[in-house]
Amino acid sequence: MPDPSFAAADLSIPAPIVRRGHERAPDGLARRYPAAGVAGKEVMIMANFLLTYHGEGGMLSTDEERAEAMGAWTAWFTQLGEAVVDPGNPTSQARAISLDGSVMDATSSPTGYSIIKAGSLDEAVALSRGCPVLAAGQVVVVSETFPAM
Predict the structure, then answer these.
(1) In the chain, at which end, N or C, are there fewer CB atoms within 10 A of the end residue's CB?
(2) d(CA 39, CA 13)
(3) What are the residues whose beta carbons fall under 8 Å from the beta carbon of 17, sequence distance 6 or more?
(4) Do residues 134 and 141 lie in contact, with contact meaning Cβ atoms separated by under 8 Å?
(5) Residue range 53-61: mean pLDDT, rounded
(6) What is the SS3 string spanning the chain?
(7) pLDDT tens digits for range 16-43
(8) Terminal CA-CA length for the chain
């Protein structure tokens, strides 16, 4: 089990949006630890998950389509509540850089991203099942991030 004072001191962002410490619990679930210097308070150590959206789907062409899409995103983010770390943005152009420094148009890139927090990868996947891009036929890739610096 990670040392709570070590985990809290090593976080790159303050509570309540925090990342899991370097060690994982055997079952991969989030843990509550006493908050450093605050009697009777706990800090939930949770991981951040990068959701990248992939697939065909261009810009919506009518005001009605855009309003409907924004309504779906707003409803999903409202449902996620405090799990939303960064609602993200769509992406557009992408380029790839190879080892020799040559640059080319990327053949595969995400159409957008969001960042959420959850107690485990399975929990993040469950939260991602309501993502509006799924209804448009796109795919959501859920990746756990960890503090490296």
Answers:
(1) C
(2) 21
(3) 48, 85, 117
(4) no
(5) 79
(6) CCCHHHHHHCCCCCCCCCCCCCCCCCCCCCEEEECCCCCCCEEEECEEEEEEEECCCCCCCCHHHHHHHHHHHHHHHHHHHHHEEEEEEECCCCEEECCCCCEEECCCCCCEEEEEEECCHHHHHHHHCCCHHHHCCCEEEEEECCCCC
(7) 444 444 334 444 445 555 555 556 555 5
(8) 21
Residue type, 25: A
63: which 2 tokens?
Answer: 């005001």
In this structure, which long-range contacts are made by residues 102-110, counting pairs with CB atoms below 8 Å and at least 24 apart in sequence? 108/54, 110/52, 110/53, 110/54, 110/141
Backbone angles phi, psi at 99, to 5 degrees: -55, -35
Contact between 137 and 53 under an 8 Å Cβ cutoff? The reply is no
- Of residues 132, 146, 125, 141, the one with CA closest to residue 51: 141
By the 8 A CB rule, do 111 and 54 touch? yes
pLDDT tens digits for range 3-21: 344 343 444 444 344 444 4
